[in-house]
UniProtKB/TrEMBL annotation:
<dbReference type="InterPro" id="IPR013785">
    <property type="entry name" value="Aldolase_TIM"/>
</dbReference>
<feature type="domain" description="Alpha galactosidase C-terminal">
    <location>
        <begin position="324"/>
        <end position="409"/>
    </location>
</feature>
<protein>
    <recommendedName>
        <fullName>Alpha-galactosidase</fullName>
        <ecNumber>3.2.1.22</ecNumber>
    </recommendedName>
</protein>
<keyword id="KW-0378">Hydrolase</keyword>
<feature type="signal peptide">
    <location>
        <begin position="1"/>
        <end position="19"/>
    </location>
</feature>
<dbReference type="InterPro" id="IPR041233">
    <property type="entry name" value="Melibiase_C"/>
</dbReference>
<dbReference type="InterPro" id="IPR002241">
    <property type="entry name" value="Glyco_hydro_27"/>
</dbReference>
<dbReference type="GO" id="GO:0016052">
    <property type="term" value="P:carbohydrate catabolic process"/>
</dbReference>
<keyword id="KW-1015">Disulfide bond</keyword>
<keyword id="KW-0326">Glycosidase</keyword>
<dbReference type="InterPro" id="IPR017853">
    <property type="entry name" value="GH"/>
</dbReference>
<dbReference type="InterPro" id="IPR013780">
    <property type="entry name" value="Glyco_hydro_b"/>
</dbReference>
<dbReference type="InterPro" id="IPR000111">
    <property type="entry name" value="Glyco_hydro_27/36_CS"/>
</dbReference>
<dbReference type="Pfam" id="PF17801">
    <property type="entry name" value="Melibiase_C"/>
</dbReference>
<keyword id="KW-0732">Signal</keyword>
<dbReference type="Pfam" id="PF16499">
    <property type="entry name" value="Melibiase_2"/>
</dbReference>
<dbReference type="GO" id="GO:0004557">
    <property type="term" value="F:alpha-galactosidase activity"/>
</dbReference>
Length: 411
């Protein structure tokens, strides 16, 4: 009898333990559908680095709405590196820097949300962030709960101080942690393309950086003394033009936060923006909204260009041809239309004389075609916002160095 009772007790405990083990639900895979078109917003890093605070964020959110940026589609305010205190608290929780954010992060997030905007934060898969703040390594589930409780909508997750860490595993762990925490948060991988995230990140992330950091120049390489480089925007485009088939709705190749309105000429800003639209890159502004010139605002809120970027097919464009140093980039759009950008990569003024009949388009990665011998397209100049003829005749124009002409071809 005693034996029977004992085995009954043991098996009851075993069943309970088994049931408990089974009832723990770990989420896997990203939150689907959070970024069906490339995310648009603002990130603090390019202009402010770690010099960020509550006032800056509130003013940026205010201007995002009052300037028309929000109406144009920009809705994420993302705080990059430098938002945290140097150490976690006694329970291992992250803490917002009490001097930069005297009222804490929650109040600020509620403020941004009250403006109809979304809010993002930054951390890093390593032991420390790139700027030396507490990294998430070993705290993935705790940090994910922290973010979910705060109510953030976007997490940028960087790749500094990760010696010996396996990238696909580290990013999958954080993705699962976010899923388990239960709040839909866009997961933005910032692994710089070192381990080809386009090969493995689609199930776990909504966007992934494909290069090292951008630099506010047209086509330069900026070598840092510590032996790494930042890249002019055309360098990034060129570097990653061949991974277009890995990008699409909810899984974007991220060409980095924009430098529009920072140190380049107005012409280069236009080209930079046009190329980010052509590449279906996330459009994350990186300038100081409080000092934004009307020309910069006009570029960033150009509805015609944004429509190219946000087109629901979500296809990254490609280089069709180069004529006398003028590159021709094309991007298939929904409803049979195409975006086409002439970009003068040279230092000389050029004359464009583009013969459509000799330049029919075949997109071998996605199977779209434009045969200019069979179909005539109406041409709309997207910067001038007007129709400029059809593909019956050659397209002719003058183009100054580093400038773009962006067209929409409508069948
Ligand atoms: C890395 C990232 C940048 C920025 C900084 C912050 O360099 O690539 O975008 O987040 O870290 O330290």
């Amino acid at each position: 009898m005693k034996k029977l009772l004992l085995s009954l007790i043991i098996s009851t405990i075993a069943i309970q333990a088994f049931a408990q083990g089974n009832s723990y639900k770990q989420g896997t895979g990203k939150f689907e559908g959070l970024a069906m078109t490339p995310p648009m917003g603002w990130n603090s890093w390019n202009t402010f680095a770690t010099n960020i605070d509550e006032k800056l964020v509130k003013e940026t959110a205010d201007i995002m709405v009052s300037s028309g940026m929000a109406a144009a589609g920009y809705n994420y305010i993302v705080l990059d590196d430098g938002w945290m205190a140097k150490e976690r608290d006694e329970n291992g929780n992250l803490v917002a820097d009490p001097i930069k954010f005297p009222n804490g992060m929650k109040v600020l997030i509620d403020y941004v949300h009250s403006k109809g905007l979304k809010f993002g934060l930054y951390n890093c898969a390593g032991t420390r962030t790139c700027a030396g703040y507490p990294g998430t390594r070993g705290f993935e589930y705790q940090d994910a709960r922290f973010y979910a409780n705060l109510g953030i909508d976007f997490l940028k997750y960087d790749w500094c101080n990760t010696a010996g860490i396996n990238a696909p595993e580290a990013y999958a762990t954080m993705s699962n942690a976010l899923k388990t925490a239960g709040r839909p948060i866009v997961f933005s991988l910032c692994e710089w393309g070192d381990n080809n995230p386009w090969d493995w990140a689609k199930p776990i992330g909504n966007l992934w950086r494909i290069s090292g950091d951008i630099y506010p120049c047209f086509d330069c390489e900026f070598k840092h003394p510590e032996n790494w480089s930042s890249w002019g925007f055309m360098k990034i485009v060129e570097m990653r033009k061949d991974i277009r088939k890995f990008s699409g709705p909810d899984h974007w190749n991220d060409f980095d936060m924009m430098e529009v309105g920072n140190e380049m000429t107005g012409i280069e800003d236009r080209s930079h923006f046009a190329m980010w639209c052509m590449m279906a890159s996330p459009l994350i502004a990186g300038n100081d909204f409080r000092k934004m010139k009307p020309e910069t605002l006009a570029i960033l809120t150009n509805k015609n260009l944004i429509a190219i970027n946000q087109d629901k097919l979500g296809i990254q464009g490609f280089k069709l041809t180069v004529e006398d140093g003028v590159e021709v980039w094309v991007k298939p759009l929904s409803d049979g239309a195409w975006a086409l950008t002439f970009l003068n990569r040279t230092e000389l003024a050029k004359k464009i004389n583009f013969d459509w009949k000799k330049n029919s388009i075949k997109d071998v990665d996605f199977g779209y075609e434009a045969d200019f011998n069979k179909t005539i397209f109406k041409i709309k100049d997207l910067w001038k916002n007007k129709e400029v003829g059809t593909t019956k005749k050659n397209f002719t124009a003058d183009i100054v160095p580093h400038d773009v002409i962006t067209l929409k071809l409508i069948p």
